[in-house]
Every structure is written in structure tokens, then in C-alpha cells.
Amino acid sequence: MQQAPAVVGMRLEDVDTPALVVDLDAFESNLRRLNESVAGRVRVRAHAKTHKCPEIALRQIAAGAVGVCCQKVGEAEAMVEGGVRDVLVTNEIIGARKLERLATLARRARIGVCVDQAANVRELEAAAAKAGATLEVYLELEVGMRRCGVAPGAPAVALARTIAASPHLRFAGMHAYHGRAQHIRSHEERRAVIANAAAAVRTTRAMLDEAGVACPIVTGAGSGTFMFEVELGAWDEIQPGSYVFMDWDYARNEWAPPLPRFDHSLFVLATVQSRPDDRIAIVDAGLKASSVDSGMPGVWERPGLAYTHASDEHGWLEAGPGSKVPALGEKVLLVPGHCDPTVNLYDWYVCVRGGAVEALWPITARGALA
């Protein structure tokens, strides 16, 4: 890990840059808003792939979440090591070494995993038997994502039977997540896509009931749609992740009830290191400081100023008509275009309240690619 860019008690303007900053007031407000929105109608299983930090996971659990999700075995290991005792890996895990690690982890905590093929079920059963553990296994249902997942209906029922017949696996239910829907800009189009997903969930769950296979949980949903899943009633558990931070891309969505609007709480703090003229400033936060796969970062509370492009170590701020760029040495806050991959670039969160550093949280699952 790199040395932390700040110490507790330091003023924000004195923090070394680039730094990943969490506004604690906005962060805590987002935690409360999610739980107030669902009002106990479904379980919350917050997605830790966004923040990769056990400290945040434990705060989500304290706010009402039953546990967390993650995408990789390494992320699950970091969560369990940090004190989280209920983790669902919302992904298919392939490969002998990873399967061994996953099954071994299930001796320390409740561990779930997704499957979409019978061959993977057999591999999971062998790994769990060898470890003397039990894995919670969810069939991943294809609901429009076109990535992983078994087709709704009869193929899903056949897979569920295979899971249920495995002595060291427990059929825990269905994972039904439509990731592509999260960033559909139109509110009504997002709602319609999730309604189609709900139809697939209901059909499959009814067929499981007819086949005598109990489906304890249907889990899924993300920050851009979760209230649609709640209102449609086909899901028992939701998995929002980005809601804790809210990135610049999510801000481009159309937001309307029943979906609440969350606050930006994650920022990249950057310093102006060059100022060629009154219209252009160069900051020390480029491609290695903020992911641009979903667009350039936004410039926080600086009207008329835009972050226009980036190279490895540099970012360009350009002023619009009637505006000037910040002075040499001045610091600016940037809202990442995509929070998840931006977080993966840092070792520490610098947690700030009232303009001062209140805490430093290590991002212990950073780089957990396997």
C-alpha cells in the first residue's frame, strides 16, 4: 500500500494530491436515504464491488444491510478478513485455485456464489466437499444483460435441481440483475426494462414451485433501478452499490419518484500544476487518478469549468465564456465519471467532514482481480 496522503485533523486544502476523498455527511445521508426508501419492504445486500472497503461494508450493515455482494473471490476474502460474515459473490467462479479459496472461505463466513452451468455446479460441489464446507449457490437468471446467466423457465429449473441435489451446496435462490438498465437515461425506459425482467423472474419462480424446488430468495437490482424492483414485488433482496458515492455518469440519468436522488460523496482531489493561460489549467489527476470509461469527471461547484480530456498523469480544465481557471497550486474536487474503477486506483479514502480530515479508511480489496 502507498502512504496515506493525509493525517487525521488535517485541513482538506492541505491533503496531498491526487487523493480519493469521501464527504462523510453526504455518504451518511446516502446510507440513510436508501434504507428510508425501501422501508423494510425488501432486504438490502449492498454491493461492495463499488467501494472495496470493509469499513464501508460494516457501516452499510449497521445501517440495515444483511450483508454485502462482491464480484471476485479476492474481494470476498477482504470483506471476511475485515469482519463481514455474509458475502454473496455475484459472479461465476471458474478455476481450481479460486474454487478452493472460495470453499475454504465458507468455513469462516456465510458465502454465496452464482452459477449458470451444470458443469460449474459439479466443480463447486467437489471444492466444497474437499473443504468440508457448505456453499450457498444461486442460479443466475438471464434477464436481458446478455452477459452471464441461464435462460428463464425450464433451463433454470433443471439447473436448480442440479444444485439442490448436491450434498455440499444449498440452493439459495435466483440472482436476477439487469446491469445494462442502470444507466438507461429515461426513467420510464428503465422501468419498462425491469418490468420485463420481473416477468422472467415470476415465470421461473412459478415453475420452480411446480417442480417442488423451493426458491428462498430472488436477489438483484442496482442503484439506477432498485425501487422498480421493490415496487414490482418479484425480488426479495436488492444489491445497490454506487448509491453510497453517486458518480458523474449516474448523475446524467433522469431521476423521479419512486427512485430517490443520492448525493455526490466521492471526489478526486487534484492540484493545478500548470496554467498556460486564463482559460486552461493542468491538474495532477489524469487517467491514473480517475477512470474515464463512462466519461470525464465533473468539476465540483465550479460553474463554467470543465474537465475536457486526460493523459496518464495530467487533466485539462477549460474555462467557458466569462470564467477563469483556478490559480497555480489551487485544489479542485472532481466527481469521477465511474466510481468503481476509480476506487480501484487508490489505497486510501480520505474521509472529510466540515473541511477537515476525520478518518482514513484503507481500500483493502483494491486490485482483487481474482
Q: Please, could you describe this protein's structure?
A:
With 370 residues, this protein is of the alpha/beta class. It folds into two domains: 12-19 and 262-362, D-serine dehydratase-like domain (Lyase, Ornithine Decarboxylase, Chain A, domain 1), CATH 2.40.37; 41-244, Alpha-Beta Barrel (TIM Barrel), CATH 3.20.20.10. It has ten helices and 17 strands. The protein has helices at residues 24-38, 54-62, 73-81, 96-105, 118-131, 154-164, 187-210, 226-232, 248-251, 339-343, and strands at residues 19-23, 43-47, 67-70, 86-92, 110-115, 135-140, 169-175, 217-220, 237-238, 266-277, 280-283, 298-299, 305-310, 315-319, 331-335, 348-353, 356-362. Strands 1, 10, 11, 12, 13, 14, 15, 16 and 17 form a nine-stranded mixed β-sheet that branches. It has an eight-stranded parallel barrel with strand order 2-3-4-5-6-7-8-9, surrounded by six helices. Strand 7, helix 7 and strand 8 form a beta-alpha-beta unit. Helix 3 runs parallel beside helix 4 (96-105). The chain starts with 18 loop residues before the first strand and ends in an 8-residue tail after the last strand. The mean pLDDT is 97.
Summarize the structure.
By secondary structure, the chain is α/β, with parallel strands linked by helices. It has ten helices and 17 strands. It folds into two domains: 109 residues, Lyase, Ornithine Decarboxylase, Chain A, domain 1 (Beta Barrel); 204 residues, Alpha-Beta Barrel (TIM Barrel), CATH 3.20.20.
